[in-house]
Here is the input.
Amino acid sequence: SLSSAASPGYWVTAAIYMAEIGIYFNCLLAVFNMLPIPPLDGGRVLSNLLPPKASDQLDRVEPYGLFIVLGLLVSGLLWPLVGPGIQLSRELVLRLAGL
Here is the structure.
């Protein structure tokens, strides 16, 4: 109702909910982007940590990275890989933010 929308508590609750959604999506993107699949950032980090020969082999996978990610998504294997990291990072950020 209009009277409940005018109350300060309504807006505080809405702002907290929006912050939680923003935190969730940022955690999702951060964890997803750190998958060790080139051209994602995780693939680049792994490539820099590997010995030169292994790094070159990993770099050759880069043209197929999108297809690998799509394959993981379609097969249902993507969520088991990133889900726990998303939940862990989300809980950590929410605790640090006091939400």
Remarks:
- Residues 2-97 form one domain.
- The radius of gyration is 19 Å.
- The helical segments are 2-5, 8-33, 41-49, 52-59, 65-75, 78-97.
- The chain has a mean pLDDT of 91.
